[in-house]
Design brief:
about 350 residues, alpha/beta, Aspartate Aminotransferase, domain 1, 7-stranded mixed beta sheet, 14 helices, about 40% helix, binds pyridoxal-5'-phosphate
């Protein structure tokens, strides 16, 4: 029986069409600026996101770390939400590599609003760190794939301008946020000074992320990427997968969202899973387990039944819909989860 892997949208494998496109990619030494496929990907990404320029990087973490370094000086502060990837899942890179102090604050559903942020912006005082930027994550992973309403982003932009701080978007799943809102990705991305996006999540490329910003900012980011060891040579082979993903897999993201909602709906019928299907906005389903079900043990039991999901903090698990699961897989996974929850330990 096939394993139904819902651990993350990063687990997808390149399709035959993607592999063929990769195999035929023209390449050159990208550190010399000679790789035409990387250039195509960067130009196309900048265009799709409504910015002047883009920089291809190996991972979302490097995209964030290069951007943070470009946004702030050692001793500066960046405001983010408590669940943020940059705060929780990057091995304290902002502090360790860039000397940046992250200033996290909680927000309902991960939606950091201007009302929450404004009191945290530091005054000009000799004692205070300088607030360099406000960082948000859209969609918000920890909060369960939640999406920022456009008005909230507009307010944050005005706040950032008022206080002369930068606005940063960790847009690993910006594609999903735009799909949910029914807007072009550029409508969201153009409101930010720097944006990072992943090609290896919902879009299904094997590797790769990008940063977009102004031409000047990307020139600076390119030097930082080199410093971090992210200057790559015939990387068109990898950029080709990302380009293929961007051109072919964006319009299907709505299917993942429907499947995530369906999974939530099927599970919500059981008292073991505390989830309101109406709260599912994108491809991520965060489920609270009823007391008596331990997340680690439950995930392990499920894995014996060939369904993979991940523990996600106290009493929680996470399942993610993606390119490599269909409607039948979701129904099967839901049934196995219901049976496993119901079976004696
Ligand atoms: C996955 C993810 C990243 C980092 O991506 P990697 O490629 O795994 O380094 C950054 N931000 C968010 C919100 C993510 O979900």
């Amino acid at each position: 029986m096939k394993i139904i892997d819902l651990r993350s949208d990063t687990v997808t494998r390149p399709s035959k069409g993607m592999r063929e496109f990769i195999a035929s990619a023209e390449v050159g030494d990208d550190v010399f600026g000679d790789d035409p496929t990387v250039k195509n990907l960067e130009d196309r990404t900048a265009e799709v996101l409504g910015h002047e320029a883009a920089l291809f990087v190996p991972s979302g973490t490097m995209a964030n770390q290069v951007s943070l370094r470009a946004l702030a000086m050692p001793g500066d502060e960046i405001i983010c939400e408590t669940g943020a990837h940059i705060f929780n899942y990057e091995v304290a890179g902002a502090a360790a590599i860039s000397g940046i102090q992250l200033h996290p604050i909680g927000a309902a559903n991960g939606i950091l609003t201007s009302e929450i942020v404004e009191p945290l912006i530091r005054p000009e005082d000799i004692h205070d760190p300088r607030t360099a930027a406000i960082a948000i994550e859209n969609s918000n992973n920890r909060a369960g794939g939640t999406v920022f309403p456009m008005e909230v982003i507009g307010d944050l932009r005005r706040l950032a301008d008022q206080y002369k701080v930068k606005l940063y978007l960790d847009g690993a799943r910006l594609w999903n946020a735009a799909t949910y809102l029914g807007v072009k990705p550029s409508e969201i991305a153009s409101k930010f000074d720097y944006v990072s996006v992943c090609f290896s999540k919902g879009l299904g490329a094997p590797i790769g992320s990008a940063i977009v910003s102004s031409r000047e900012n990307i020139k600076k980011a390119r030097r930082i990427r080199k410093m971090y060891g992210g200057g790559m040579r015939q990387v068109g082979l990898i950029a080709a997968g990302a380009l293929y993903a961007l051109e072919n897999n964006y319009t299907r993201l709505g299917d993942d969202h429907k499947r995530a909602a369906n999974l939530a709906r099927l599970l919500s019928k059981s008292p073991f899973f505390l989830i309101n299907p109406d709260t599912i906005q994108t491809n991520i389903v965060v489920i609270r387990l009823a007391s008596g079900l331990n997340p680690d043990r439950f995930c392990q039991k499920l894995s014996h039944e060939k369904v993979l999901v991940v523990p996600f903090g106290e009493n929680m698990i996470r399942a993610v819909a993606h390119l490599d699961v269909d409607d039948t897989d979701i129904e099967k996974a839901a049934n196995i989860m219901l049976e496993t929850a119901d079976s004696p330990a």
